[in-house]
Every structure is written in structure tokens, then in C-alpha cells.
Amino acid sequence: MKIFLTIGLSAIIAMGAHAKVNKTKTEMNDNNPFFTAYTTPFKVPPFDKIRIEHYKPAFIRGMEEHKKEIEAIVRNQATPDFENTIAALDRCGELLRNVRIVFSGQNSANTTDEMQNLNREMSPLMSKHYDDINLNRELFNKVKYVYEHQNNMNINKEQKKLLEETYKGFIRSGANLPEEKQRRLRELNTQISLLQLTFGRNMLKETNDFQLIIDRKEDLSGLPQSLVNVAADEAKAAGKEGQWIFTLHNPSVMPFLQFSDKRELREKIFNGYIERGNNNNDADNKEVVKQLVNFRLEKAKLMGYEDYAAFVLEERMAKNEKNVYELLDNVWAPALAKAKEEAADLQAMMKKEGIEGELKGWDWRYYNEKVKKEKYDIDENEVRPYFKLENVLEGLFYVVNKLYNITFTEIKDIPKPHEDAVAFECNDADGTHRGVLYMDFFPRPSKRGGAWCGAYRSQTYQDGKRIGPVVTIVCNFTKPSAGQPALLSIDEAETMFHEFGHALHNLFKDVRYHGVSGVPRDFVELPSQVMEHWVLEPEVLKVYAKHYQTGEIIPESLVKKIENSSKYGQGFATAEYLQASFLDMDYHVLKESPSSFDILKFESESMNRRGALSQIPPRYRTTYFNHTMGGGYTAGYYSYMWSEVLDADAFEAFKETGNIFDKKTAEKFRDFILVPGSIDDAMDMYKNFRGKAPGIEPLLKNRGLK
To answer: What letter does residue 481 receive in the DSSP assignment?
Structure first.
């Protein structure tokens, strides 16, 4: 394998060198949008001009330029100081940064086989490139010199933080390891990167390949007409007009499980969903997971840690695995108790309807919907007509304007990352430009599942002037069908507000260095999750929840039903989330590689020792748990719960004023949470906002677990 990767790397370098003498390649490079300054509105990437063939030359040239910039820092004979070493290191690699951020965004939201193949081709090359920087002994010695002599340098708070993060980054990347261990670290980094890409590719394939095709109208019993219409559109697009196709994308599979009266069909699509990556085919992820877990463990031990979680958590608010498990365990007990109460309700409803036997996983959402209707006289299909996508967006803009005095104006004439996307300019009340926001709402085969917020340019400074970010929100919401707009579920409306919180974090950020732009993984969900609290506030619902046909404001009686029923089902929702969080941690606190690593057995044992209900699988089972196995939230899926402790307490700060739009509280949240990046310690930022450390009580109350 090592020989294969070396040959692949040499071939790529040779191809990059050959491009200099090949006329066709030269001409293509002359027209490469990455090689000239963007002339688009707000200098967004020229998506309309970028082609697949532009990425590889840009990656190669970007790495070449980055390498030369690093060499210039190393060759500089002046005494190392903040400006010629730390700031110079932070600035360099602009071309590579530009192509990476565009490619990454497009590969997630609009991928093709060519892009995925290029990603695999570039992955070992990129891994080597960054290892060459992080393991450059001469460069590290310069960084170390500045770090050790910082007290003699006139640097401000932000510069001091950048210096600390830069020095720590080299240490955590293996700069202090002996040469033989550095060689092995390089191999591990390459292998881990490739395996994470393989996992994500397999998951996308498994999700896209499954179809539940229905050809009898009676098998649509119970399904809302809007879902049926979308399924008919899917079938027509697939050349099966007159039939209905349901998929494993959330806007299709979840309402099917909620409303289909056909138990055998619910079972079929449920099993299709939970067995992704576990079908013993060319997209099976079990072996990928085994290798990933083992390689991560080996890397952690190489770096001097007892397990991979210890290596990761050192940089998080949680600090260690004991604190993570303590939080999860404290919420697990009341969540499991609540889930058992709900299971009893659902089992009783099944019996009432004459269904014998035990409640199953494919029954849960269906009977939960029935119990909610019986207990609270509410039906999601009664609510959806008031949640037209455009109206929810209007309500979202209303909330952030009331809180922060910012506006969003649609931009028509601007390149977009996909034709389905819409673009907005964000401005402060005084007209100051904050950034550009793209929003891309609906599923397609080229888009990975879920919802996320990313950026096509991070906020930065140029010639002393703040340059606003280019932010993107990508979702997989219920599509509009013929003659009907996109009508969202409450969950989808909350997702829109959630991702918008991430966008605000990007838009308000004001830092001068890339290296202090990010925040710890278990803090990053605070700005997003706190936004969810406004979705169902009666004052907000009256603004945006209008019937898509009549324009009628949502009735007070229905608002009351939503409020009364909002806590029902939290046992299930909390349990499935916690089970995934436990699973993620359990894989990464392993201190020795199991002699026989049966992934499915490991997962089962993790659930059984906590008494998990068989009807509630983890929100993400191992073989499609992209948050952890694809990277990003590795040993960090607990972060949503950790951040929820913060966000529940933060919203209390607004409620305590008697005004959920209190300007003073919003200003403090903006100044202390959204603006500073990681210049301050995460807990210090929270205490600066709240005046105290958060407690767990608001979280339990918010989830109806107390």
C-alpha cells in the first residue's frame, strides 16, 4: 500500500511539472479562475467559470506556492519574531486555501464521481504537504524561539493567542517526535484521510442506491399528499411515471415512517435506513471502521496519549473523557426513563388498534404520531401548511433583525454554488457589509445528507480592512411538489434556525488571523442551538406562521397545541442522540486494539450495557456515522449536548429580562460569543456573556426531562 501511494504521489507531481511544457495545459491554466483575483460581486468564487479540470492544477500550484512561502520564512536570516514567523505563517498558502475551501464545499453539496476520484487522488498529496510543514524542524525551531521569547515582544492579546495556537499545533502534529515516529505518523495521517473519504463515499452511495418503489395506490395509505406528490415526481424523473419512489433522504424516509399505514413497508424502508454501510457489498463500511479506529489509536499512542479521545479532548472545553461521560450519564438516566414511558404509550396504542406483538423500531414514529394526536389533538400535517419555507425564512430574518439590527437583501446577479441556491447580502443597521450568505434547501443525489453551514471564504483582513465572509447553508428539506410550495416540518424549521446560528457566527466574527478564527468543537454548536429557541415562541410564530393558501396567521389554539406537545417524544430524541454519543466515545476510548474486532458486536454491547431500548437505534449507527468516522466530530459527537447546556442557559438570560429580544442581552451575546473567534478561552467567553458558568438544569427543563 505504501508503494502504491508513493507511485501515485510521484505521478501527480510529474503531471504537475509536465503541465508547464504542455501547451494545452498551459492554455487551460491561463484561464483557470483560481489563478487570478476574483472580479465577481463581493469577490465570491466564480462558480459559473470553475470546472472540474481547474481544481487539480490549482491544488498543485497552490502547494508549490505554499512550499515556497514556507521556505522563505525558514531562509529568513533575521531573528525570528511574531511578524516574520507567526504572522507570515498564518498569511501564507492563500491560493491553496482558496481552492480547498471551494472544492470542499462543492464536493459536499454538488459532488460527482470525478470530484470524488480527484479527492482520493489529492488526499495523500495534501496529507504529505501539510506533514512536510508541520514536521519541518527548522520552521518549528523558529516558532519555538518566538514562543519562548514572547515576553520580550510587544504583542497584543490576539497575537499572543495565535502564537500559542501555532506552537501547540506543531507539537500536536508531531514536531517533537523522533524521525522514525514522524515517518510512521505520516503514514497514519495518509491512511486515516483516505479511509475517512472512503467512509463518506460509501455512505452517500448507500443512501442514493436505496429506493422503495410503490406501484399500488392503496400502499400509499396514511401518507400526506405532499409526500405522495414528491414521490411521484421522483418516479417520473427516474422513468417510472405512474409509480412512487421513496428514498433514504430524510424528507422522504422520516415522514414515511411517521405516516405510512403499511407496517411491512415501514419495516422495509426502516431496515434500508439503519443498514446503510452494512450490506456486505462494495460500499460496506465495517472494515473501513475497523481500520480507522485502529489507526487513530495508533496515532494517539505515537503522540503519547493513552487513547484517541484523550488526544482530541485536550483541545476541547470538556478537557477529558471523564467529563464527557459524566454529562452523558447525567442526561441518560432521565432520558431512558422518559423513553420507557413513551414506549409504554406506543405499545398501548398498538394494542388499542389490534396490533399484536412487540413494538418495533419501524413502529415508533408512526405510533408516536398517533399518541401525540390523541393526547394533544395535534397532527403534523395540520401544522405544515403554516410553515411554508419562504415564510419561515421571513420569520428568521425578523428574529435576527430584532436581535442584532442586521438585514438580508437577496442578490440576483451573482455566481452561485448551484442553480438551486439563493444569495443574500448581510448588512449592519448602518449599512456596513458583513458578508454574503448562500442558502441551498433541497436534496439531490449529488448532495450529502443532513444540513450544515460552511464557508467559501472565511472572514479576514486585507490592508487593514475587514473582508466579509462568503457563507453557505446547505439543507435537505422537503421539496415543493406540483402546485404546492415547500412546506416544512417543525423539525426542518428548527434546522433552518440552527444552521442560521452558525451563519451568524461566521458573519459576525471579527479576527485578524486565520489561526484564531475557529472555536472548540464543543463550543461551536452554542450559536446554532440557541437560535432554535426562537422558532416556536408565540411572538415569532405570529410573524411567519401563515397558511400558504389563505395567509391566515396560525391560530392561537394551534400554537397552544404545539406548545403543549413540544416536550412529547423527547425521551426518544434524547436517547437516540445519547446512544450515538456513547458509541462515538466508546470507539475512541479504546486503549488497546481488540484482537477480534466485530463492529456490530461492539455496537450492540455499547447499547446493551446502558440498557438502551431495542426499538431505538442510535441516531447514527456505526456504518453510517459520518460525523465521527468521516471526521469532524471524532470523539466529539457529545458536543451537541455539551453546547446544549450552554444554549439552554443562554436563552434563560433572554427570558430573565422578560423580553426574548432584549437588545442588551443580544449585544452581549454578539460581542462575547459571536465576534471573538478563539481569542478568548471558550468558557471565559461564556462567563463574559452570562456572568457565571452554566448549569444542567435549564437543559433538562428544556427537554422536558425534569
So the answer is: B
Active site residues: 499
Q: How far from 249 is each of 220, 240, 330, CA to CA, in Å? A: 18, 19, 32
CA distance 263 to 356: 12
For 473-513, the pLDDT digits (tens) are 999 998 898 778 999 999 999 999 999 999 999 999 999 99
Between CA 689 and CA 683 the distance in angstroms is 10
Beta strands (DSSP E) in 188-254 are 212-214, 244-246
Measured between alpha carbons, how far is 583 from 608 in angstroms, rounded to an integer?
11
440 pairs with which residues across the strands? 474
Helix (H, G, I), strand (E, B), or coil: what is residue 163? helix
Backbone φ and ψ of 552, nearest 5°: -65, 135
Q: Tell me how far the alpha carbon of residue 381 is from its chain's centroid.
A: 28
**If you average pLDDT over residues 70-88, what whole number do you get?**
98
| pLDDT for 29 | 66
531, 501 contact by CB (below 8 A): yes
Residue by residue, DSSP assigns 49-83 as T--HHHHHHHHHHHHHHHHHHHHHHHH--SPP-II
Contact 584, 634 (CB under 8 A): yes
For residue 524, count CB atoms less than 10 angstroms from its CB and return exposed for 0-12, middle for 13-18, buried for 19 or more. Answer: buried
What is the rounded CA–CA span in Å between residue 81 and residue 59?
Answer: 30
Beta strands 433-440; 470-474: pairing state: parallel
Q: How far apart are CA 527 and CA 644, in angstroms?
A: 10
Are residues 496 and 442 in contact, defined by beta-carbon separation less than 8 angstroms?
Answer: no
Query: What 3-state DSSP class applies to 611?
Result: coil
Question: Which segments of 69-171 are extended strands (E)?
Answer: none
Interval 423-434 mean pLDDT: 97
Place of cell 521556505: 71
Cα 431 versus chain centre, distance: 30
